[in-house]
Amino acid sequence: MIAIVGAGPVGLVTGLFLSRQDNTNVTIIEARPKEKVINASGRSINLALSHRGLTAIKQACPAAYEKIMQLAIPVVGRMVHQLLESRKGIKGKEVVDEYGGCIYSVSRNALMEILLSEAGRSCAIRFQSKVDEIVFGDLVVIRFADGQGELEAEKVIGCDGVNSAVRKLCCKGSEIIESKIRYKEIYIPPDRKLSPKHLHIWPNPQGGNMFMALPNADGSFTGTLFSENREESVESILKDYSNHLLKYVHLEELFDEWLKNEWSALCEVRRSDWSSTDDRIIVIGDAAHAMLPFFGQGLNCGLEDARLLSKAINDGISFEAFAKARQPDTLAIQTLSRENWAVMNGGELAFGYRLDKLRIALMRFFSPEITGLYQMVTFTDIPYGEAVRIYAKWKRMFLLCTVITLLMVILVLYAKVYLL
Prior knowledge:
Layout: E1 2-5, H1 9-19, E2 26-29, H2 34-38, E3 46-49, H3 51-60, H4 62-71, E4 73-86, E5 89-107, H5 108-122, E6 124-126, E7 131-136, E8 140-144, E9 150-153, E10 155-158, H6 165-170, E11 174-188, E12 198-204, E13 209-215, E14 221-227, H7 234-238, H8 242-246, H9 251-260, E15 264-271, E16 281-283, H10 286-289, H11 298-314, H12 319-346, H13 351-366, H14 373-379, H15 384-419
Parallel strand pairs: 1-2, 1-10, 2-6, 4-12, 10-16
Antiparallel strand pairs: 3-5, 4-5, 7-8, 8-9, 11-14, 11-15, 12-13, 13-14
Helix pairs in contact: 1-3, 1-5, 1-11, 3-4, 3-11, 4-5, 11-12, 12-15
């Protein structure tokens, strides 16, 4: 029997994968009651699913995939609402950046309801069972708090998030790093004339904050304010947005939402060991590698973990070997997610963003199969680390071609001046 600790999306999809394998019984353990799993307070209202996450769900349970896609909202690009300074003063400018693919905005509650329903058909799910102790013997014994008994398992998979009990009890070398960036969600009603096909971004690099909005099924948007500013005043944080944001989110609504919703912290989990020393316990998803949300890959990476781990178990690969092979890729996407804060918050004026767009356009003129790093990460199965290496190689090629072109131009000009 395999025990999975944590009934979030990653734990449920892991259970769906493993329960399909021959002679495998799966029990999913969750500390919260069922209603709080579905309606998780203090968590993002909607989630962004892209190719990696959707591929995992589709392979684990086609029925769940079909139900999710019926509710999912396609997002084809981002719309940057940029404030620009000119001689005539400050004015707003909206710039659309199409992805070349599609991500999907999905209600967290709807996603959880579907996955719980499907996982409950093939897995035992035990709610309100907080892991208190893990004891190693012939079998792994999981003991629960408040005298709720114990459970024996051959293997244990920890999918219990940033504050993982499994990680704390069984795996060494973890480090939780809290970001200086916090977030607060702001509801935007459905009558504000925002494009429902785009992720909307209001950057404010000078103020150290960024406002973002994802569409919901009813036409409303879930707005999220990310801020490095430790001041609690809504006026102090939003003063630089002028009326460019307030034409979509009314000031009185901002005040109401500001008081209703608490600040939430962002953090990363960096660790050297994902598995226990006897190779019977492993952590995946946020329990192993929580990341900042600025590449949209936290959930997708965790769901990909579930797919790859289930294949490794089926192929007889040890937890230690799986972790060793997977960790370079999760480290790569953690780094990209951290660095992309500056890119997203710089908007269309960010030098790196503009240079990257120019570089890709020029490279594709000579080689149409070349694509951007974001596209490789978001719309393909290319391992994260490999995507970084491929893009670095293309950048080197671009630099070499640029140098050669400049030298040729210099030689032609020299010949015209001195040899003709």
